[in-house]
Amino acid sequence: MIKPGVFPMSQSEYIKQYLQVRSFSERLCAPLETEDYLIQSMPDVSPTRWHLAHTTWFFETFILKPELHTYRSPNERYNYLFNSYYNAIGDQYPRPKRGLLSRPTVQEVYAYRQHVDQQMQILLDEMSDIKFDKLKSFLVLGLNHEQQHQELMLTDIKHVFFQNPLFPVYQKQTLDESSSTTPPYSWTQFGGGQVKHGYSGDGFCFDNETPRHDILLQPFELGNRLITNGEYLSFIEAGGYKQPKLWLSDGWAIINSGKWDSPLYWVKQDDKWSEFTLSGLLPLQPESPVTHLSYYEADAFANWSGVRLPSEFEWEFAARGLKSEGNFVEGQQFHPRPVDDTQDPDIQQMFGDVWEWTRSPYSPYPGFKVDEGAVGEYNGKFMSSQMVLKGGSCATSSNHIRSTYRNFFYPHSRWQFMGLRLARDVGNGG
Amino acid sequence: MIKPGVFPMSQSEYIKQYLQVRSFSERLCAPLETEDYLIQSMPDVSPTRWHLAHTTWFFETFILKPELHTYRSPNERYNYLFNSYYNAIGDQYPRPKRGLLSRPTVQEVYAYRQHVDQQMQILLDEMSDIKFDKLKSFLVLGLNHEQQHQELMLTDIKHVFFQNPLFPVYQKQTLDESSSTTPPYSWTQFGGGQVKHGYSGDGFCFDNETPRHDILLQPFELGNRLITNGEYLSFIEAGGYKQPKLWLSDGWAIINSGKWDSPLYWVKQDDKWSEFTLSGLLPLQPESPVTHLSYYEADAFANWSGVRLPSEFEWEFAARGLKSEGNFVEGQQFHPRPVDDTQDPDIQQMFGDVWEWTRSPYSPYPGFKVDEGAVGEYNGKFMSSQMVLKGGSCATSSNHIRSTYRNFFYPHSRWQFMGLRLARDVGNGG
Amino acid sequence: MIKPGVFPMSQSEYIKQYLQVRSFSERLCAPLETEDYLIQSMPDVSPTRWHLAHTTWFFETFILKPELHTYRSPNERYNYLFNSYYNAIGDQYPRPKRGLLSRPTVQEVYAYRQHVDQQMQILLDEMSDIKFDKLKSFLVLGLNHEQQHQELMLTDIKHVFFQNPLFPVYQKQTLDESSSTTPPYSWTQFGGGQVKHGYSGDGFCFDNETPRHDILLQPFELGNRLITNGEYLSFIEAGGYKQPKLWLSDGWAIINSGKWDSPLYWVKQDDKWSEFTLSGLLPLQPESPVTHLSYYEADAFANWSGVRLPSEFEWEFAARGLKSEGNFVEGQQFHPRPVDDTQDPDIQQMFGDVWEWTRSPYSPYPGFKVDEGAVGEYNGKFMSSQMVLKGGSCATSSNHIRSTYRNFFYPHSRWQFMGLRLARDVGNGG
Amino acid sequence: MIKPGVFPMSQSEYIKQYLQVRSFSERLCAPLETEDYLIQSMPDVSPTRWHLAHTTWFFETFILKPELHTYRSPNERYNYLFNSYYNAIGDQYPRPKRGLLSRPTVQEVYAYRQHVDQQMQILLDEMSDIKFDKLKSFLVLGLNHEQQHQELMLTDIKHVFFQNPLFPVYQKQTLDESSSTTPPYSWTQFGGGQVKHGYSGDGFCFDNETPRHDILLQPFELGNRLITNGEYLSFIEAGGYKQPKLWLSDGWAIINSGKWDSPLYWVKQDDKWSEFTLSGLLPLQPESPVTHLSYYEADAFANWSGVRLPSEFEWEFAARGLKSEGNFVEGQQFHPRPVDDTQDPDIQQMFGDVWEWTRSPYSPYPGFKVDEGAVGEYNGKFMSSQMVLKGGSCATSSNHIRSTYRNFFYPHSRWQFMGLRLARDVGNGG
User: Fold this and answer.
1) Cis omega (within 30 of 0) on the bond before A289?
2) Which terminal CB of chain D, N or C, has fewer other CB atoms within 10 Å?
3) Start-end of H helices in D164-277
4) Model confidence over D102-121: pLDDT tens digits?
5) Contact residues on chain D for C164, CB-CB shorter than 8 A
6) If residue A423 lies in a helix (H) or strand (E), which one and from where to where?
7) Do the chains C and B touch each other, judged by at least 3 C-beta pairs below 8 angstroms?
């Protein structure tokens, strides 16, 4: 799970960062009513209350219980209720039933958070440097873990609100309308060759970004920006959802059985398309990046365009020199926004806005090893039938993402901020 | 739906009763946290918040909107969200998704109730006698409707709490432990003959209790009291759930596919039986009436006992002269209690405690007619595949029940307070 | 199961009847290819091969094994494969998987039949009168049982063939087109009063037709004939499947979830209705009785007509004096046919053509007792959630039916030859 | 689909090969009863009759209809019934319902085969060299396609027979018991580096084996032989199915929901393991290669062993120099057999016996393009969520397999002859 390495910050800086990340989770909940914390709208979605408790349980389980002998949990059953999938820790309350629990109350969960935060401060304050070094990696993992759940809190509450014909609004706002028009789609060429791939450096990374290893890349071209709603609408209007030859077999099956004819959250009323956002139901903005697509839809769009999706290797290679700047959660848009003039015109919107589907199945890198303990269950056991996504989204923390970061979802998943950028081979356009 | 008839109370008495019934719904919610109002633990169950809103919608839809021209709904979408099954009124939000809605909030629903109550008072206060006569039947229906939902609020929240490994407590209390021992099972004989069956009188009744008509009854015997937990436990311990010959075919299928081996809410821990109640998980009380049985289980118990369940005709005939006294919701036990000495020893516990399964399918009486309007959907359309239950339960209002009252549920339903009393033919014991 | 009584035939006459019934099963299979014997098109349907074997197993199990000590089964596993639902006999191969078995082959099943028939003849030939008296009732039950399966063989193979876009033909023929036109719908009045109901006599009847008992009937009127395709088509064209107020709640749910908009086997091509029959896909005949309706559809049609379905008590009362003549399986039409002039114009088509749905749930008669042994599982355990049908169909043997006969199916079942006749109260038309 | 290339055989040799392949399909059916041809035991399985017809439809559709103007199909509906998944050709009869068809009969399907074979001979005999060159690639594709279905015919009939408690036998025989004992597991090292991967040559290959391209391989070690039943039994007995840490998350879910505790076809009776084979239920042979494993099980076994599965790149690299010799369908064992002395001891059983799961998801090679026409649907559209298997099995034709061949199945699939060989990194054992 955790790479040995230099963690460059001081103990007090870690404490500060701990408090920042923890309080940001609660800041994201500010617009919510108590009622909003409870709902599980599909098995993939967890109630907000559960996210708040589970991230707390993570620190309790992996740091407080083993390290602070005076630690007492407010309720020993929380270990059953808020364990997500760590079989090494014990049984778990069934995931699809998380929405059936009214207790502990939201207030009790906040008290649980406060309790754990206080105990964490006691632990961290009193701790010797030597001991701190030992648990630093768990601490940093816990913070990255909580940031991942912050993203899920936003995408999950969006899904919850969408079930409601009242279309609740998480944050009132006019979406940013860039006056500049979207530049035409153009291609930037990248040379191939033998290159290093995977994480290298002194900071934190997840185990699935390692080990860094050599790969062979053939030359390729990458699109200069994300695909927009307007472009995706052209695909729909050209009958894209009705041409089986554009689709993977599993994709064709699911768009038919699920009656999918547009991205998740697109709503057609009186022949006009709207898009459900965290700011409510808004008219579809043609210049905004398309989002909430499954892999199947992204792949079909690429096929229709006569090209393909990038591999994770290509994407990462192209992103290497770039600063991870963009439309992140700190910008509080909670929605992708049209391309603007501030980025390198050759390669824009690589970070933030939407996670970009790659054509790469989520597999272990050569030499990848799973950790022995419970944290070994963090990433490795999901390495089948999922696809890699890159770049982060408008719901990702800016200090959470990097070019080597590998997100992964099943190809049918759509409720994250997922979009696409095109790629093609050099020379023959496909 | 509504029988023409004398409604003997004055206008102001009706207003008083309206306010009493309405406020009792809210009183039942006093022990709940906001979180508890939201959960739908299975499709049959509705969130408490929904019950509060739906009963309010009933008055809004059938009285305020047609009668009070100045009436404005706080939200026109409530007509979609809180219509249960009245197709004549319009489409309905899908029943199995009632638990996916976080809005309107609980507070907004209380405001909705207050709004409707105020408008109802305005309407009732200003109304001429003539006009009042016209809507009286709807008013009384609305109150009986709300009483039915009060019962469901209790049985639904019990089901919700049971999903939670924390076993929340609705009302702390020691259950009433009668010092008297349960009398032995004995039989009271009733003569048969041609008798009148169905409602007769000036008060309110549901349409399904009419028309009163002649039936032929053969002589029969009825058990003196409800079957107890102790007696049902003997059935379990004798292998009752493992002997197919005791079971209806559909019942045998469901106890096997559902792995049922005891009533709903019975929990076996370390070889000791407990029972989940609205006062939490308590040791099983052998003297208490057994409850939360399906029809299949009640029928199998009767077969095992060598006798049978009563028909609804027999039960009603036996109950004719009796006062409807017993353990009702006003007693605030929210659980059946052992028989005591206060009732006629020949025939005890006929009213209250638990609804008693009869062997009678829920069918229309000869000459039954469905009302033309939307209220015609109240009872008649459910007359297939369900069974009649009699007598009310510990969650029923005492002024809601009568001997002719016909409750009905599918034979597999168990989450109401459902129990049984035995019957047998005269002479041959079966 | 079996009523004690006089079985008036001689031993040799029984043997003759045994051979007749047994060979008729095989005659019904004459048009089938080996491949047709194998298919199970839904869990309710059994492969023809299974019917042939199961009816044989019945004689083997209830007569040969207990009575003929030299009897050896060709394969002891048949007892597992061909037991339908007799738990007292042992476990059963799962019903929904009957179509997964390719062995024993059809030829082996015919050999099994021959083996059992030979052994039955040995047994019956050598048997003393005393012993014969003892097993006579099982013998007669077995023959009636086989006749029931003969009907299922026809309705099941029809369902199997309907899955096939080649629309196979069981029996080529032009359906009987009566030149006479269908008489208008008219009503015959029957007086009520206290009457006897249930079987009485010396012949065979099923246990569920007993005990004969007194009932009270109110005066009623019964339609003179079956409802025709043309009349049912009017109901469809008047939007009958789109008006929720006509439907029972469970019925409305199933026609929507199952997308039912016409009887089973009706096929609309180029705006013209056809009907799949055992003679293939034929143009819909407006004068023929409508068939393959669920109870819900029959009930909705009656509601739309402003009247109702008869009760089983009314139907039986009306049928008392009538000869059971009509369009039975011996006529080899295998399809209901238009009314003709040969019957009493007041009350036609009571027997044969289609089973008539009644509004009566399938319940035990007062005093009904289930037999102790395995045959006690024959009828009684199905007495929940099903409805009674009367009169037999074009797939019923003429000597199998009588006015007291109670057939029963779930209200959603449609694959039998099921149709309807209307009834109404005297005086008020409903 | 079809690589341009030299097809080295003469026209008459192709005709000969056509007839050989076609008649081999029928030879495989020799042991079957008519009844066996019909059954579909799960959606993945097709009835034998369907395989015979579908492979015939393939030649009819892609060669006869476009090339032979006088060609007439025996039944135009066959195009609907026997199209598998070629959307470009038209709609298809739903795959999960293939077992609901009794017609066309088996005999009619054989007549269909004969008809197409005759027409093919007419076409091929009369054809000019130029025209023949044009359709040669379709012809060869059709033959390879039929060989794939020959394998499926065997694995599907095995699954069908397994549903039957009579355990039918496809081919009576004593399985080959090698007197030699299985050699200990040992490792052969392979150097890494930049190597060519994918098909190169003049013969036929599938499109998914191309384009040949450079890859980087790290040094690795491959096990000398297949894992045996005995070794897999040790994994079971060590609690392998009960340790979540050994399993991929999806795998853990499926072994629990499906109650898997051993390979498909293993049967435990009286504490003794048997294995269902095409020769019936036989005692488990510890020396035989384990087969009928899902990817999840193969992966868990490798984890338990402290090593891993090979990638498809490693496997193919290791197999490059080897002759594709082994236990193929021509040997008519229809079951994997213990290792023998005839192969290179360093690397045995690479071809034949069982398909070997690799850790490589089934993805397009860089530069892979899908063909324009209907045959473009052959392979490419399945490139999501499946895994690559290598080497062929005891049900594969020896002239069908090669080192570059990529078979693919979902990770939960088990009904093919699927087994495993281990691999590990050089130096650190994992």
Assistant:
1) no
2) C
3) 229-237, 249-257
4) 999 999 999 999 999 999 99
5) 100-103
6) strand A423-425
7) yes
| Chain D environment of A85 (Cβ under 8 Å) | 249
Tokens of C213: 């008992």
Q: List C193's β-bridge partners, or say none.
A: C217
Give alpha helix (H) positions in D87-242: 106-126, 129-162, 229-237
**CATH 1.20.120 domain extents, chain C:** 11-162
D208 phi, psi to nearest 5 deg: -75, -5
Supply the Cα-derived Rg of chain D in whole angstroms: 22
Question: Does the beta-carbon distance from D161 to C102 stay under 8 Å?
Answer: yes
| CA–CA dist B17, B10 (Å, integer) | 11
Q: What is the pLDDT of residue C159?
A: 98
| DSSP output for D213-245 | EEEEE--EEEESSPPBHHHHHHHHHTTGGG-GG
Quickly count helices (H) and strands (E) in chain C: 10, 14
CA separation for the pair C21, D80 (Å, rounded): 41
CA-to-CA distance for B265 and B172, rounded, in angstroms?
A: 18
Is it the case that residue A180 has pLDDT exceeding 80?
Answer: no
- State the Cα–Cα distance between residues C124 and C119, nearest whole angstrom: 8
* Chain C residues near residue B376 by CB distance under 8 angstroms: 245
D366 has a chain A CB within 8 A of its CB: yes
Q: Rounded to two decimals, what is the model's pTM?
A: 0.95
Q: What is the ipTM of this complex?
A: 0.95
* Interchain contact D249–A (C-beta under 8 A): yes
Interface test with A, best of B42, B83, B103, B153 (most A CBs within 10 A): B103
Q: CA nearest C232: which of C220, C241, C224, C244? A: C241
Which tokens go with C43?
A: 């869990």
Neighbouring C-beta atoms of residue B187, cutoff 10 Å: 17
Domain D11-162 has CATH 3.10.20: no
List C-alpha distances in Å: A294 to A29, A154, A290, D239, D413. Answer: 27, 18, 11, 38, 24
Taking the CA atoms of residue C76, residue C80, residue C84 and residue C89 in that order, the dihedral angle to the nearest 10 degrees is 80
- Residue pointed to by tokens 């599907």: D156
Mutate to test the interface with A, among D214, D381, D412 (most CBs of A within 10 A): D381
How distant, in Å, are the alpha carbons of A98, A274, B120 from that of B125? 47, 46, 8
Q: Write down the residue that tokens 């998380």 correspond to.
A: A98
pLDDT tens, residue by residue, B241-296: 999 999 999 999 999 999 999 999 999 999 999 999 999 999 999 999 999 999 99
- Under an 8 A CB cutoff, do D295 and A384 touch? yes
Indicate where chain C has its CATH 3.90.1580.10 domain(s): 187-425
Encoding tokens for residue C290?
């409508």
Q: A245–D216: do the CB atoms touch at under 8 Å?
A: no
Q: How far is C92 from chain B (nearest CA, A)?
A: 13
Per-residue pLDDT of A310-320, as tens digits, reads 999 999 999 99
Put simply, whether D213 touches A (Cβ < 8 Å) is yes
* Residue contact A35–B102, C-beta within 8 A: yes
Residue with the larger pLDDT of the pair B345 and A296 = A296
Cβ neighbour number for residue C10 with a 10 Å cutoff: 11
Angle (CA) D90-D93-D98 rounded to 5° is: 145
Phi, psi of A350 (to 5 degrees): -70, -35
Closest CA to D412 of D274, D251, D256: D251
Contact C178, C334 (CB under 8 A): no
Q: Are A33 and B104 in contact (CB < 8 Å)?
A: no
Domain B187-425 has CATH 3.90.1580.10: yes
Phi, psi angles (nearest 5°) of residue A120:
-65, -40
Q: How far is D340 from chain A (nearest CA, A)?
A: 33
Whether the Cβ atoms of residue C295 and residue C387 lie closer than 8 Å to each other: yes
